[in-house]
Design brief:
This protein is α/β, with parallel strands linked by helices. It has one domain: Glycosidases (TIM Barrel, Alpha-Beta Barrel), CATH 3.20.20.80. The strands form four sheets. Strands 1-2-3-4-5-7-12-13 form an eight-stranded parallel barrel, surrounded by four helices. It has a three-stranded mixed beta sheet with strand order 6-8-9, with helices on both faces. Strands 10-11 form a two-stranded antiparallel ribbon. Strand 10 and strand 11 form a beta hairpin. Helix 14 runs parallel beside helix 16. The longest helix is centred in the middle third of the chain and has 24 residues. The radius of gyration is 21 Å and the shape is globular. The chain starts with 10 loop residues before the first strand and ends in a 6-residue tail after the last helix. Bound molecules: D-gluconic acid. D-gluconic acid binds next to loops.
Length: about 425
């Protein structure tokens, strides 16, 4: 497997998100996000860690971009922190924040790395949460579209690949798409898409009941978002179960939603076996049973679905990658896709020596990329792949106890050390090999 195993022009990158890597959450004019408030609640985050510094990409972006270049990557998927640009979510602009993203984008381009910018990665401005309950309110649609439009206008001369966000507010995401299409796309010649988190759901047994359970899970998990985009309505299974609690699209919304993206970003990490709750004997409640009416299984007849990573939700199941991509290809008429996140946190990788010696991660990437290639060879319309993540970073509830990076970060002095997996990618991505 090497770069040449993939179609010409296929892009390889790494992915991060603003809150997880930037640091400098209180200075330089940035307003607080909902995560700044959340991490302060004692007991929420492992070791009560915060992201005030995390890996300090805000100051060390040059070093990080140099790393990407050195490891032969072509692209970088980062996110823009809404409250760094609009400290109150709307209105007053923080020009320091704007200058930061200009520096980052310019440096990426200078080093030959294509920027993929995501507008929202969980870090909603706290002010909007306080003002109208944030994403629960329709008011967020306009504020998000204004923020998005500001980003298109300011960075779109250099950023040609935009992602909105991976939250249930499809309409909010697509209001931003509309602005892009109307006002910027033609001029700036870019494209815009959304990000879907896609766990592959495999039926536990070949019974009809388990097959139906797996299909319900897929519909609730990704169909919820992509079905309206391709077909202008929610999947049938959802309509039947959620009934009147499912909002109806107005005719205007259907028009706006249908066909409204240039590409789909797919975050694919893992796979579970699904079964009908009435039949399964090994129930695992992940909190979805109510509507989905399914049972999650991490094992079949006592055999785990794959080797487990550090995170308890993450099993190494490469074949699920292939099935997930072929599913989107077949059910949703093969849209342009990018694999926007894939990666793992290996268990017991705390010290530098352990961290650097990440042979389990290499195996994970090698096996998943082989399945990705198989999907591409079988016609899936994929144009790029992003490893999560460039660096160890703030892993939400797990704080710094979970390390997803291909580059190790020593949190005492923030020094970066490429792991074996980084060197593996460097070799894989060499440009001159036959
Ligand atoms: C996402 C994720 C990332 C995580 C990664 C590893 O949905 O994009 O939350 O931010 O860090 O998936 O868990």
């Amino acid at each position: 497997l090497n770069r040449q195993s993939f179609p010409k022009g296929f892009l390889f990158g790494t992915a991060t998100s603003a809150y997880q890597v930037e640091g400098e959450t209180h200075q330089d004019g940035r307003g607080p996000s909902i995560w700044d408030a959340f991490v302060k609640i004692p007991g929420k985050i492992a070791n009560n860690a915060t992201a005030e510094i995390t890996v300090d990409q805000y100051h060390r972006y040059k070093e990080d971009v140099d790393l990407m270049q050195n490891l032969n990557f072509d692209a970088y998927r980062f996110s823009i922190s809404w409250s760094r640009i609009f400290p109150e979510g709307t209105g007053k602009i923080n020009w320091n924040g704007v200058a930061y993203y200009n520096r980052l984008i310019d440096y990426l381009i200078q080093k030959g790395i294509t920027p993929y910018a995501n507008l929202y990665h969980y870090d909603l401005p706290l002010a909007l949460e306080q003002k109208y309950q944030g994403l629960l309110s329709k008011q967020v649609v306009d504020d998000f579209a204004d923020y998005a439009e500001f980003c298109f206008k300011t960075f779109g001369d250099r950023v040609k690949n935009w992602m909105t966000f991976n939250e249930p507010r499809v309409v909010a995401a697509l209001a931003a798409v509309q602005r892009y299409r109307q006002n910027y796309q033609e001029k700036q010649k870019g494209r815009i898409g959304i990000l879907l988190d896609f766990v592959w759901f495999e039926p536990l047994t070949s019974s009809k009941a388990d097959n139906d359970a797996a299909q319900r899970a897929r519909d609730f998990h990704v169909g919820w978002f992509i079905h309206p985009i391709v077909y202008g309505e929610y999947p049938n299974t959802m309509q039947n179960i959620v009934k009147e609690r499912l909002p109806n699209f107005t005719e205007e919304e259907v028009k706006m939603v249908k066909g409204s993206i240039d590409f789909v970003g797919i975050n694919q990490y893992t796979t579970y076996f699904m079964s009908d709750p009435k039949i399964s004997t090994t129930p695992k409640d992940l909190g979805y049973q109510q509507d989905w009416n399914v049972t999650f299984n991490f094992a079949k007849n006592g055999t785990p679905i794959g080797p487990r990573a550090h995170s308890e939700w993450l099993y190494n199941v490469p074949w699920g990658m292939y099935k997930a991509l072929m599913y989107i290809k077949e059910r949703y008429s093969n849209p342009t896709m990018i694999l926007s996140e894939n990666g793992m946190d290996d268990p017991g990788n705390i010290t530098l020596t352990q961290g650097q010696n990440d042979t389990t991660r290499i195996k994970y990437y090698r096996d998943y990329l082989a399945q990705l290639k198989k999907a591409v060879d079988d016609g899936a319309n994929l144009t790029g792949y992003f490893a999560w993540s460039l660096l160890d970073n703030f892993e939400w509830l797990s704080g710094y106890t979970s390390r997803f990076g291909i580059v190790y970060v020593d949190y005492k002095d923030l020094k970066r050390y490429p792991k074996m997996s980084a060197l593996w990618f460097k070799q894989l991505l060499k440009r001159d090999q036959k």
